[in-house]
Amino acid sequence: MSRRAYLYFVLTFLLGAVVGGVGVYYYAWSMGHWHRPFNRGSFVSRLKTDLKLTDAQVPQLEQILEGSTKEFQAAQQQADSQLNAIRQETRSKIRQILSPQQTQQFDEIMRRLDERRKRQVR
């Protein structure tokens, strides 16, 4: 193999690796796999610095964030329960059109999907 062909081969391989790596990174970032969770302490610290908050304002900010966190968690639980109800209703409707053998297979497929969903939430 000539040097030129070898160089093209190596460059093509490296370009493919770079493009593939960027694609994986973009996919994982856009799907939420690589986002950092919210860090309240860091957020408060940043606002304290950027906005030059007084010592009296910091506890008020923390109290506001604590309250909104509780509201967010309650809303998340409500949304989860509503989504679960819709999911169960949809599965029930699907089971009505399936034969007994298909229902067993469907239940197994749904069990695997539920396990995957639980792993992704953690």
Which features characterize this protein?
122 residues, mainly alpha, 4 helices, 84% helix, 0% strand, flat
Can you walk through the features of this model?
The protein has 122 residues and is mostly helical. It has a domain at 59-121. Helices cover 84% and strands 0% of the residues. The N and C termini lie far apart (51 Å). The mean pLDDT is 88.
Quick structural gist:
The chain has helices at 3-30, 40-51, 57-96, 100-121. The protein has 122 residues and is mostly helical.
Question: What's the number of extended β-strand segments?
Answer: 0
Helix content bin: over 70%
The major β-sheet equals: none
**Rg over alpha carbons:** 25 Å
Order of helices and strands: HHHH
Task: Report the span from N to C terminus.
Answer: 51 Å
Write the layout of secondary structure elements.
Elements: H1 3-30, H2 40-51, H3 57-96, H4 100-121
